[in-house]
Amino acid sequence: MATAYISRTPAGVGDLRKWTFSAWVKRGNLGGSQAIISWFGVSASYTTQLRFDSDNTINFYQYFSGSTARLANNRAFRDLGAWYDIVAVWDTDNATAGDRMKLYVNGVEETVFGTDTNPALNLDSYANSTNEFTIGAKGAAEYFDGEMSHVQFVNSAALAPTEFGEVDSTSGIWKIKTSAYATPGTNGYFLKMEDRTNLDLDSSSNAYTFTTSGTLTATYDNPSNNFATVNPLANYASASTFSNGNNTVTAHSTNHSWNISTMGVNKGKWYWEAKMTAASAPAGGSMIGISGTQQFLSAKEMGNQEYTYGKAQNYTRYLYNNSSTTWGTTWSQNDIIGVALDCDNSKLYMSVNGTWMESGDPTSGSTGTGAISLVDVSTTPQQVWSPSFGDWDSTWSSIWQVNYGNGYFGTTAVTSAEADGAGIGAFEYAPPTGYYAICTKNIKAYGG
Fold this sequence. Notes:
mainly beta; Jelly Rolls; 33 strands
């Protein structure tokens, strides 16, 4: 959400002593106070809030008259490639002090806290009052950096997390329930955030009107189908910075930059797009390719490491394991580079604005017409290929905008919105037949 948030000022008072809030969230960056939701009291300093703290723990609390009620767990949530279902329950009618505030993550109750301060019996919260509340921020501060989906608030009910998710019988993974709770009650709401033209639409039976401040970016990434992004936790030489849901990467000007995605693949056929939107002088130092490993070895760039293939912007060759092979064409700033990875035949193809380099044919199978021939992925240390981006030299820097199928370069939507063969995602150019966006649904269907 960056510097955007959703807000509403209720017209009437609901149940101040019993309610449940649930949100599915995918973090973008770590650190800082990042509010998931904030309800305000008589002033901005009086608040009931659910947020990530600067140490990446979850803090569910209420501040009032110099006192607090608080559950602050002591484990960090640092996975930037995963969706979390966070459920907060306020129930101060409960005679058992330890049950008046509850916090669940992915269906499991948090029971170990750095701070565990129970609210008093029958204490009113600021949630459900007639004061404004903000989703994704604390007013115009403490912005949540990441994505949200299926945000629900239910009045007068202390609900179990099984109302919002369930354990998948095959994988054992906590998965979303996409239906609204039947009786949201006064001030209850359900923001699915699935309508790309109306992200603050309330799909509950109340159908309340919400206000969006700033600009929200729609995405196909959701708890039912998690898309790859660039991984800030695999930040080679600690060089790059990340934005726009970790799909924009800004390289550091004094380090080799080399970044990989949150998902890797070793079977099937996959397609993604990227655009280099800026580069420092001398131009042409940006690189795109794949990586089967990522480690700091003599500060070498992608392509000069074993198990990495890198194609530089202004060279008609690619690099592998510190060796150069003549191949491909150059490209210009803001050109769209398409990458087609055929894991089944160990072939890699690249295009510029829809035209395949070397007259490549990604559907040519083992023939590999116009392809880079890869080593067998089973020989790589991680035994997967990951989409990768980097710089040619430690004194150059570039900005990459990546589209794994979410339909955006930065904050600009693609114009063509071409889906893959499974009808998933939105690309500027149509993926080759049999190639798919890198996301959990496709990996399950075509990556095994």
